[in-house]
Amino acid sequence: MSSVLNTVLSTRLSHVNSNRRVRTRPVLSPCSVSFTTRRLTVRAQESSAEEGNQIKRRLQGGSSFNQLLGIKGAAQESNKWKIRLQLTKPVTWPPLVWGVVCGAAASGNFHWNLDDVAKSIVCMMMSGPCLTGYTQTINDWYDREIDAINEPYRPIPSGAISENEVITQIWVLLLAGLGLAGLLDVWAGHSFPIMFYLALGGSLLSYIYSAPPLKLKQNGWIGNFALGASYISLPWWAGQALFGTLTPDIIVLTLLYSIAGLGIAIVNDFKSIEGDRAMGLQSLPVAFGAETAKWICVGAIDITQISVADGSWLYILTIAGYLLGAGKPYYALALLALIIPQVVFQFQYFLKDPVKYDVKYQASAQPFLVLGLLVTALAVSH
Question: 70 with 87: CB under 8 angstroms?
Fold first, then answer.
């Protein structure tokens, strides 16, 4: 509309000048309007260009190391293999690898010989690069519309990798993970293919977490608990089933520990509040607000690990309490000691600003959480 107005006014002004008429008021007034309209248009174009330049500067100033790890602050990359690696988010592999270590330790049957070490490495490859990589890639694929709002510079919404390439990667990682699981069953001499079924169940959970119609992540409670169980329970079960026997009490214990995983999963929701709200996803920061959600987050992490009871109860609802009630006070005290720095970092970083300090908080606090997992595993094995 503004361009039409400018054209008309320019024509009228030209016509007036050519005939040298002295009707100044009708001419000068529209000229003033035209000038203002054009200025507004230019400002809008400058604003849009500046927004694009900000994204470009953010990408140019990003870190290549962050790109390879698949975390925020990543540099833009054209190399397809680096982009593929970014989609698998290698930064998320260590908890799964550690979970396998904890399961192997809890079995009480792991020995430092070539055969057991080789089997454990294959199990870690299955749990980390293959099935976690599959999970992260499929999650990015189904989150592409949200990422277009929250993080438009990510590989899929930015167009750095094509649709066919992403789908191919999903299938390759899934089949590789299931294939390694079947290999481990044969290697361990299992009469029942428990490793394959654990891998298949975990892959199905990953799919329904990200994909419609179920899309578990739409519900903050169910989705985050499913994510926590995937990162804590499943790799533990895999490690224990590979070297020993997966028993019902271990299943219950690790599922309780997954409540802490629920809290960790909430941390990742704070950076996506705007996009989740726009797409109708009821993450806990969207449902309860950031202020309430951050306390739910730290509460889930801490209360799961801390013993809360009055003397006569067997503390089955918390991990330290479970160990204390099972007659293993030294392990319980070690676990409580590992909780203290987690609480310190929660107040120092996460509770101060969960969006700004989410990565720094996780890097600082999570090592103590995973060490607590190993303490619990060793207690179970003894």
Answer: yes
pLDDT one-digit tens code per residue, 271-327: 788 878 887 778 888 888 989 999 998 888 877 776 422 222 333 346 666 666 667
N residues, the chain: 382
Reported as half-sphere exposure (CB side, CA atoms, 13 A), residue 124 has a value of 18
The string of DSSP letters for 79-107 reads -HHHHHHHHH-GGGHHHHHHHHHHHHHHH
Classified as helix, coil or strand, 74 is: strand
- Residue 294 one-letter amino acid: K
Reported as a single tens digit per residue, the pLDDT across 41-84 is: 333 344 444 444 444 444 445 678 777 777 777 777 788 999 99
Cα distances (Å, whole numbers) of residue 171 to 132, 163, 367: 13, 13, 32
CA gap 370, 367 in Å, rounded: 5
8 Å CB contact between 137 and 123: no
Distance, in Å, from the CA atom of 231 to the CA atom of 89, rounded to the nearest integer, reads 14
Q: What is the DSSP letter of 282?
A: B
* Helix H or strand E segment including 60: helix 24-60
- Distance (Å, rounded) from C-alpha 151 to C-alpha 140? 11
Distance CA 298, CA 112 (A): 37
d(CA 118, CA 350): 38
Cis peptide before 212 (omega within 30 of 0): no
Rounded Cα–Cα distance for residues 108 and 219 (Å):
37
